[in-house]
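For the sake of clarity, the format in which proteins appear in this thesis is described at this point. The fold follows as a row of integers, each naming the local backbone shape at the matching residue. One such record is shown here in full, so that the layout can be seen directly:
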Amino acid sequence: MNNMAMKLTRAAAAVAALGGSSAEFGSLSDAEVLAARDPIADLLRLSNTVAALLAGTIAHRSRPELGQSGLASRYGFGNPTMMVQDATGLSRIEAGRLLAVGVLMNDTETAERRAADTAREAERAARAAAAAAEAEREAAREAERAAERAAAWAELHPNLPPLPVAAPRPVLPVLPVLPVLPVLPVLPVLPVLPVIVAAPVVVPWQAPIVHAVADGTFSPGIGDALLRGLGTLDQAITAEKLTAAL
């Protein structure tokens, strides 16, 4: 169960414990009435956030490229907003605002997940490249050591065949007194694999608002108001400026 679900469960349990009738609420003390405000407000805010998640899912499954096979169209709704309105009982304007926040939540979560996946892939590629480079260096060092052994053999035994470097040298039974030098095969030089740099994933500048809505700090209505107040991107207003303002 994620953090959002846990908060929703706790808020629902706290509100349910207050009672379910006017008589039960009427029996609460003044202190209990004052304390009841927080869990009720939390439940309302978190319920709206869940509704935004539902709206974002409806919008994604009803995106224009799906045409008549989209979720809203298949169930007889002219657009996703109308389906959200029917599902939540909100006005058309409220459903539209909920849909806008839900779409942004979906897009932000997807972008952040892709960014994390890209970072992990880049890290794995870097480790693989480093391992290949180290293997190449080790192969070069082993080749150098083999060449040094061959040179030493030739100097000590000028009348004998040269010491092979790629295969074990032949056993010479007529010269049992000669020291047998171990010869290791030359390791193949492994090519260094190029590091494939994935295109960076751009996380929407509105991500902090989305996180605040997702964890219940803001209601979707407050998130929508902030988005409308900050405006949209154009030639003068960049994502960096909006991020700083946010």
Q: What stands out?
A: The chain is about 65% helix and 0% strand. Residues 125 and 195 are 6 Å apart (CA to CA).
